[in-house]
Specification:
With 551 residues, the chain is an alpha+beta fold. It contains 14 helices and 29 strands. A 10-stranded mixed β-sheet has the order 3-2-11-6-9-13-12-21-16-19, with no helix packed on it. The protein has a 6-stranded antiparallel β-sheet with strand order 1-4-5-10-7-8, with helices on one face. A 6-stranded antiparallel β-sheet has the order 14-15-20-17-18-29. α9 crosses α11 and α12 runs antiparallel to α13.
Length: 551
């Protein structure tokens, strides 16, 4: 009875007396782009717009929108015949020269009758209304800024951003609803006169820019620093690094030379099978309390989405996913053979793993051919690899698709995890970019026999199958770039050489003669590969983290 009364009340409002009825001066389009007749009636404190023919919502994920320009804040009432209360939304003032488009989400079965702006039309210009796909967040597009659901306020001041979130967008924070805030933006930079001259002479070094992200909730606050090369960028934020429901996100340039433009903010809720796109810095610090599975969390590298990253509870869980795969693909004396867990129980796998699509396809095909029983983690790995197109199943055979998998573990210390993840991410780059792979093979082939002999001794000592040239070259570039250039001498000439001499005392003269005869070997390889690494995707050796938490 109460619902019927509400509907009758709304109908009365729309059929009540008014001074006059006119055609609206702006169009109304449905989701197919078809224009519908829109009329308005003036009341004392507001103007009511209504459709001559009501529209019933028969699709999911639709929203009502109004495009406007205004220097003042207004409110919007949307009248529907669903039996629900009137939908009310704020129309924030436009903080720039281009119009805003405000969305109000609709539900299946809603009937759109019309809308009203309040308190009046002073200071606001309505440009268009209609139906469109819904959006949680905001988006900047040519000629318009769209403000979707979940946004309580938006302030775009030059190269900064303040955005307010509705509490209901985040819920209770339970594991059944992990939220994700995705921020797309563009980094710029102010150049000095001297830098402009370097640009003209093509001698300006590669420049970076930075910004500070601040998130605030009830009695809580987190700050992050993002630094990267100029251009289009993306940051993903999760409850795993923000242990509260944020109410405000503020983004500001780190210094006067740095400029940034926010292009899109979206709130979403990833499924348990969806990898969480993340910066490596996020993966390293992500809280296990909000993992969607008890023993592992699945990420994808936000810069290379086809590269999946498994973060596991400990080495034991990680080994159940990858150890037998490691022996099949890369362990000397075992490569090409499927092994039972009992056969290698006493042998060490690795502290981190990486496999291309071809490796996975070969392993799962051989397991099928030999009726080799996979454990539950290997079955999950296969399921995830198929789901994301890394491998494809055709009849009884698995074929390589696109992508690769990497893994690290929580058994490693934070410092070791960062070192290992950096190493593994360079494998992901090697798997992804053919031109970069070719450059790595070229640099490898240009090494002297003595240099290649050192690398093969090192990789053989590490347990790799050095008869596999692809594997050798892949490890060569990953070990070169797992640290910044300034730390190459320490890692290879002191740490690695010392370990090799201790383990292989009969090779001490060979190792010391190599270091003496080729003092710049590692830096030369680094420098030769750096240009190809940059060309592949604007990567730099030793640095994969762009987002870091600050106090």
């Amino acid at each position: 009875m109460r619902t019927s009364f509400k509907i009758l009340t709304l109908l009365f409002v729309f059929s009540g007396s008014s001074c006059y009825v006119e055609e609206a001066a702006f169009p109304f389009f449905d989701q197919q782009g078809i224009q519908h007749a829109l009329i308005f009636e003036n009341e004392t404190h507001r103007r009511i717009y209504r459709l001559k023919k009501t529209l019933t919502i028969d699709e999911d994920n639709l929203a009502f929108y109004i495009t406007y320009q205004s220097e003042l804040g207004k409110s919007l009432k949307l009248f529907t015949k669903s039996g629900e209360p009137e939908l009310i939304s704020l129309l924030p003032p436009c903080d720039c020269d281009i119009p805003y488009r405000r969305l109000i989400p609709l539900t299946l079965g809603d009937t759109v009758l019309g809308f009203a702006c309040e308190p009046n039309l002073d200071g606001i210009k309505l440009l268009e209304a209609g139906l469109t796909e819904t959006l949680r967040g905001f988006e900047r597009s040519p000629g318009c800024i769209t403000i979707g659901s979940g946004i309580t306020g938006l302030n775009l001041r030059g190269e900064s951003l303040d955005i307010g979130f509705s509490p209901e967008m985040f819920g209770s924070g339970g594991l059944d609803r992990i939220w994700q805030i995705s921020l797309d933006f563009t980094l710029y930079r102010v150049y000095s006169g001297a830098e402009f001259r370097q640009i003209e002479q093509n001698t300006l070094p590669v420049m970076k820019s930075g910004m500070i992200l601040s998130l605030a909730g009830e009695n809580s606050k987190n700050r992050f620093r993002f630094e990267s090369f100029l251009g289009l960028k993306k940051v993903n934020l999760y409850p795993g690094i923000i242990p509260f429901n944020p109410e405000i996100l503020s983004v500001n340039a780190e210094s006067y030379e740095s400029l940034f433009r926010a292009d899109r903010v979206e709130i979403s809720y990833p499924d348990i099978l969806d990898p969480l796109p993340a910066d490596p810095g996020t993966i390293l610090s992500y809280s296990m309390d909000v993992w969607r599975r008890e023993a592992m969390e699945l990420f994808s590298w936000n810069r290379l989405p086809e590269v999946l990253i498994f973060d596991t509870l400990n080495y034991q869980v990680q080994d159940r996913f990858f150890k037998r795969l490691a022996f099949f693909v890369e362990k000397k004396g075992y490569a090409g053979r499927l092994v039972h867990s009992e056969q290698v129980r006493h042998l060490h796998g690795y502290n981190a793993y990486d496999y291309r699509a071809l490796d996975l396809a070969r392993f799962f095909s051989r397991a099928h051919e030999e009726d080799f029983v996979l454990n539950s983690e290997e079955e999950l790995l296969k399921k995830i690899s198929i789901h994301y197109g890394i491998i494809r199943r055709i009849s009884s055979t698995y074929l390589p698709g696109k992508g690769s998998v990497l893994s690290i573990s929580r058994s490693s210390s934070l410092v070791l995890r960062q070192h290992l993840l950096t190493h593994e991410c360079f494998h992901g780059i090697f798997f992804t970019f053919p031109d970069y792979r070719r450059a790595c093979f070229q640099v490898w082939n240009e090494l002297s026999e003595e240099e290649r002999a050192f690398w093969k001794l090192f990789l053989d000592w590490m347990g790799y199958d050095i008869s596999d040239e692809y594997l050798v070259v892949n490890e060569f570039q990953a070990y070169i770039f797992q640290q910044e250039r300034e730390y190459l001498d320490y890692y290879f000439k002191e740490l690695t050489a010392g370990r090799l001499i201790k383990s292989c005392p009969e090779r001490e003269d060979q190792i010391r003669n190599f270091i003496k005869s080729f003092p710049d070997s590692f830096e030369n390889a680094y420098d030769k590969l750096a240009e190809s690494l940059w060309s592949a995707g604007r990567f730099e050796g030793g640095r994969i983290i762009e987002l870091e938490k600050i106090q």
